[in-house]
Amino acid sequence: MQDVPKLGHKNDIVTVRNGYGRNYLVPQGIATEASASAKKIHAENMKQRAHKEAKIKNDALSVAEKLATVSLTIGTKASATGKIYGSINSIQIAEALSKAGFAIDRKVIIIKDSSIKELGKYTAKVTLYKGVDVEIPFEVVAE
Asked: Considering the domain 65-142 in this protein, what is its CATH number?
């Protein structure tokens, strides 16, 4: 019923442990049990949504092509040795993308290096849609 990070996207049929499904996913309204009737309803809904999904995916692919050519530069305060005061996270990358003309939610941006605390070149992965990922190179420079 909803996207769950590291588990599945909306309308996916996934297998989980009994307790996780019964005690968390179903009571929270995140998922339903995959009974025979629920699978039939799901199949009919997916057939009706197929053309909408194709349009959304094509839009995501066109944005991905444009994003593939983007290279970002993020300015921040740093010491003389190249250490950053604080760290760079997905919020700064989303702001830099919005300045470049792309409205990307910070929640879909994943930085490969867990914490960026030094000046240099890095990459971030942006997931626009199921199976549509873009690697965005960015450079952290001192202001």
From this structure: 3.10.430.100
